[in-house]
Amino acid sequence: MEFSDQIKQLRKENNLSQVQYAKKLHVTRQAVSNWKNNRNLLDLEMLIEINRVFHISLDQLILGDDNMNKMTQKLIKDTDENRKAKYNMITTLIGGFLMILGFVCFFIKANSVEYVDKQGFLHENFYLILVSYLFLFAGIIVLIAGGIVYLRNKHKH
Predict the structure, then answer these.
(1) What is the pLDDT of residues 99-127, one digit of tens each?
(2) Of the candidates 142, 148, 59, 146, which has an alpha carbon nearest to the alpha carbon of residue 98?
(3) How many CB atoms lie within 10 A of CB 41?
(4) Are 70 and 38 in contact (CB under 8 A)?
């Protein structure tokens, strides 16, 4: 059963007009009309509110019957998009952090003191230059890889 049919059936079972149904859920009559006509689909918070107000299980509300309805597809799509957004945010943060570490290493190298001891050995932390470049390179690679994955996912849709 499609979600719009469930909305109609739930409203009729409770002998409510669209206006009364909307008031119970704290939405407008137009919102209920849009749900009924499959123009808009609800978000998870509204599904939970319907569950709470009308005592219908979320399984019944979301799945309807054995066939996947539009609400189920929407929830699956929303979850997938949230996962992709989280992945993009994490890769951006990691890439940015690695690049910041590279710049910090350059800063430390630029402000460190180099000296020659009594035996004539030069004491210099030259390795920081290599470490700086490695951090910058790794950060750039992570950002590019994350960008490629983002563009590939966006192109699929």
Answers:
(1) 999 999 999 999 988 888 888 888 888 88
(2) 142
(3) 19
(4) yes
Q: What string of DSSP letters covers the chain? A: --HHHHHHHHHHHTT--HHHHHHHHTS-HHHHHHHHTTSS---HHHHHHHHHHH---HHHHHH-SSS--HHHHHHHHHHHHHHHHHHHHHHHHHHHHHHHHHHHHHHHHHHS--EE-TTS-EE--THHHHHHHHHHHHHHHHHHHHHHHHHHHHHH-
Distance CA 43, CA 146 (A): 28
Q: How confident is the model at residue 49 (pLDDT cuts 50, 70, 90)?
A: confident
Please, are residues 143 and 88 in contact by the beta-carbon 8 Å criterion? no
